[in-house]
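Predict both folds.
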Amino acid sequence: MSALEGRGLACARGDVRLFRDVSFAVLPGEWVALRGANGSGKTTLLRCLAGLTTPEAGEVLWDGRAAHSGDSPLRAHAVFAGHAPGVKDDLTAAENLRDALALRGVACGESAMDEALGQVGLSARRRLPARRLSAGQRRRIGLARLWLDPAPAWLLDEPLTALDAEGEKLFAAMLGRHLARGGLAVIATHQALSPAPNREVRLGP
């Protein structure tokens, strides 16, 4: 497994400086919590790590190499999940899960998808269009995606949004499973998560 590093990262939104000189490393089996007030740049920092936003300064490294160079494997080895559930209303829970995995190039059979949807409590709703699911149930489609995606690096933005207490326990178990397998994670969150983070990166004053 490889380590993920940010070195001297800086980003601005227009004339507003979000953060600068942000450096940290995440080793296999560890996760880092991004903390800060709304608008402090947590989502932007995650997008920099995922290669979706180019930092004004600094670099992202994967296994000691520039993470977003042409030959870097990070894009294939990292799964990014934004604060919105990212599901299509007209597709069923199963169809949304299938398409999300296909976009990542993850091949998955029907039985594996059925198992994952069962793990997150959506077996009885797998054929319902997403518009008929609650906000928490829509979020659980994303949890099923994490269950099936073998990516060693998780880059997650407020993953507990809309989840009830049972859903929060489910995510905690999934995070623990991921870390025990040698995965790593960077998670922007306002909430306490279990297991506790190995370190925190705080943005803003």
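Second protein follows, with its predicted structure tokens after the sequence.
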Amino acid sequence: MTASSRLDLVDALRGFAIVSIMLLHNIEHFDLYFTPPGQPAWLLAVNKGIWDTLFALFGGKSYALFALLFGLTFHLQFDARARRGEDFRPRFAWRMLWLLAFGLVNSMFFEGDILSIYAVLGLALIPVARLSTRTVFIIACLLTLQPFAWFDVFTALGQPAPLAKLPDPASWAYFGRAEQYLKHGSLLDVWHGNLTNGKTGVVLWSWENGRILQIPALFMLGMLAGRHNLFAVNEANARIWRRVLCGALLAFLPLYFAVTHLDAWVASELVRRPLEAIVKPLANLCVMLMLATGFALLYRRAAGARILGMLRPLGRMSLTSYLVQSLAGSVLYYGFGLGLYAVTGSAHALAIGVLLAILQGAFSAWWLRRHRQGPLETVWHRLTWIGSAPAAAATNANG
């Protein structure tokens, strides 16, 4: 299978992740949670159904898929340079510095930005890039199992249960303060608040929910998938995808049962919180694997490739698409802009998200008929390869 066909599937998967992220961000009002008053009971029920469904499908899964593909892209670029007798890792560190810059710009508009976190945690790929597949897989598994959370569990088991309810997680105070400037602040207030208060809250929340360890684990798993060409569209990989799909489903069922029964099983909140930080990311990982392998199995069918292939332009322009959706979301929902947070429930916000996804997809397709890469992808690409002629595979691998 050609590298082009492999990248077609990867681009389509990345486009799928971008669209699902956009839909979630819209129903969240880009982290400005608010339920408009005075809605009829039927609309409240519809909104709840949409919220629950989208978060069951994509909450904690879309970012995980994005992280998996990030690791794959690293492998493609590392391998392209290795074939030329060069070490990509110093250039990758430089590349992550520029991704951090993009992420900080994005954070000005949306505190939940993931790019800046990826830029920092992506450096974990540098020391493992030349390790054996077995070693990297073991490291990824250990990170996925959340060793620090297990330490908290065992520490809590040796302590008496607190008489009063534990204080809220530390990140909640930061998000509570963010609500005020997102609703009522000027554009400058939002920029300042997101880069200080908001960024601190997001990092704390990521730690509390197990993402700080799971993200580099997903990077490593994506790198290993690239090593073994697991995104090539062929019959051998289709058999692997089916096995992964079935295994992920079988693993998800007991994890989901555990997630939904932790409150009943574990009376001590001191124990329950770190257990949730262990079990929930594992359950989300299973759903992400089901989404990815199900998508890949559909893609290898002619009709599936035609329909799902429409997501490829969005995937090829994922950096541009991600930043543009943050800019658009802040203008649409925050107080300094149109303030739609006050009048849109999940149903209306979902409709806005679908419209934005269609517009972004159409723009991406139009742009790529005229240019090799998206506008921000081109900038990132040129900044990455200052002073060096990039390998062709690096160019094709989304930057």
